[in-house]
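Narrative of accomplishments. A recurring question from our advisory board has been how the design workflow behaves on a single, concrete structure rather than in aggregate. To address it, we present the structure tokens for one chain from the evaluation set, followed by the sequence designed for it. No filtering or post-editing was applied between the two.
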């Protein structure tokens, strides 16, 4: 490292800005800047983040420091009780140097850095500036993602034919979202080799270094390539399908890298469009993938900032149950779907959007789990979790705890949806069609119970008219109610 006198500035890189060309690194100077990463004690507390999440975050950050050094930068990787204390420690050592960073991706970290006088450049890890999103949001009566997405397509000129959508339609949902056929021939997923940094991090966490997640930019680019070559064509068709035989189906598995900075959405979109132009990718699949990146991802981030810091505390349905034991231990349930999904999460810290929304959030909402309890679990568990990802997804979409600010109706369903979209129900102790009796599917029983218990909130919602008409027709509703009490008590005890 050069003599401290030649250093003029400290650049702070959080663990979700790991990119040489974006964020504060755009302005970095090899001779004058000291690049600092801080591993805070709060973050590595084993009672906070899951080991899989920690392994991914820490190993990626340590590899990034190595990449910075190879590129000729002066670096420091500090362990400190908190991020702010780590930055202060380095400020004491290099007295008088200004700290510089990109605007942070969470309310909490941004406020912490502002409180110690950090100077900021723009956060360019997204395709939509926060001001632009706010303009869009303020012009809307309701925040429909579809409206935002169409604007994005036109603004970014992605899959467009002049002013019209390429292929004549914005949305290919009808062609997509199929369940998997029986005896499906799976395409194997990429395995990432581990190096000494991975091994050291895994050992320090008391776990085995699994080969699921890349921890370098090189590995993240390999993952992108693997998706484009082997999974992109079938992605759309089976994007909502779930299977006990394959945890990834045809998902890209790119969200961890997009969310920690190893990949940038612009390069992912460019690579996907280039592959599509070669002609082997159906437009339905390409559109489904593009929608995830320029639509959902940007929309969720935009909503996080637009709805404000207090949004995460909302609990409009006044749900108050503690987190169910099954979320932390799959042996605490006999529901096949949840057993598989929670086991998958234990192993890799990841499942795709449908298990997250239609199984995990669904059971949390139906069982009246306090939204903040569920939010904390989601945020601490998933490898791709960030505050901006989980707050709108859980409070707005999954738990409908915001009184409908984001979504016009709650995402609740009985066992029929899970039965249609997965093979979990085959061999389950419960029957997705039954709502009463010992073998009734807990989703099905609780679904009707939820509609009844929340009829004041939702029975006048025209999008739920059909569901409430169905509820009225249930002649056995007293039995459903009784079974719901048993199911809720059993879920609390970890015995359903
Ligand atoms: Fe899940 Fe119900 Fe199907 Fe069992 S029957 S796997 S609990 S949806």
């Amino acid at each position: 490292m050069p003599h401290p006198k030649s250093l003029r500035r400290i650049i702070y890189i959080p663990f979700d800005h790991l990119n040489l060309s974006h964020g504060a690194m755009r302005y970095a100077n090899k001779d004058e800047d000291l690049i600092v990463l801080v591993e805070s004690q709060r973050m590595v507390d084993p009672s906070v983040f899951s080991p899989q999440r920690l392994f991914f975050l820490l190993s990626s950050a340590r590899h990034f420091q190595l990449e910075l050094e190879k590129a000729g930068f002066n670096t420091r990787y500090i362990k400190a009780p908190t991020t702010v204390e780590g930055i202060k420690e380095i400020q004491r050592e290099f007295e008088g140097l200004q700290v510089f960073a990109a605007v942070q991706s969470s309310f909490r970290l941004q406020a912490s850095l502002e409180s110690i006088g950090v100077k900021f450049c723009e956060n360019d890890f997204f395709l939509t500036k926060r001001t632009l999103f706010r303009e869009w949001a303020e012009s809307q009566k309701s925040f429909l993602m579809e409206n935002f997405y169409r604007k994005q397509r036109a603004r970014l000129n992605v899959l467009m034919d002049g002013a019209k959508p390429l292929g004549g339609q914005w949305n290919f949902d009808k062609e997509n979202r199929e369940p998997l056929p029986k005896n499906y021939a799976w395409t194997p997923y990429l395995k990432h080799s581990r190096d000494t940094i991975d091994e050291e991090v895994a050992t320090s966490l008391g776990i085995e270094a699994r080969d699921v997640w890349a921890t370098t930019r090189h590995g993240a680019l390999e993952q992108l390539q693997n998706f484009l070559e082997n999974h992109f064509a079938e992605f759309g068709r089976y994007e909502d399908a779930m299977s006990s035989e394959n945890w990834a189906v045809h998902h890209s598995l790119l969200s961890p890298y997009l969310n920690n900075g190893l990949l940038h959405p612009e390069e992912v979109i460019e690579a996907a469009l280039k592959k599509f132009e070669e002609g082997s990718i159906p437009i339905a699949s390409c559109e489904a993938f593009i929608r995830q990146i320029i639509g959902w991802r940007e929309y969720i981030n935009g909503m996080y900032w637009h709805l404000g810091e207090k949004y995460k505390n909302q609990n409009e349905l006044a749900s108050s149950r503690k987190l169910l034991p099954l979320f932390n231990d799959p042996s605490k349930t006999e529901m096949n779907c949840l057993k598989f999904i929670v086991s998958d999460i234990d192993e890799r810290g990841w499942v795709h959007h449908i298990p997250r929304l239609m199984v995990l959030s669904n059971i949390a909402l139906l069982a009246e789990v306090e939204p903040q309890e569920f939010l904390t679990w989601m945020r601490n568990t998933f490898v791709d979790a960030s505050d901006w990802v989980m707050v709108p997804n859980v409070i707005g979409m999954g738990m409908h705890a915001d009184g409908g600010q984001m979504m016009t109706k709650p995402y609740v369903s009985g066992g029929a949806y899970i039965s249609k979209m997965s093979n979990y129900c085959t061999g389950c102790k419960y029957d997705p069609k039954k709502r009463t009796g010992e073998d009734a599917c807990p989703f099905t029983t609780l679904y009707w119970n939820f509609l009844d218990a929340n009829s004041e909130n939702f029975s006048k919602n025209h999008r739920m008219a059909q569901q409430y008409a169905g509820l009225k027709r249930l002649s056995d509703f007293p039995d459903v109610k009784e079974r719901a009490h048993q199911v809720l008590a059993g879920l609390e005890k970890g015995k359903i």
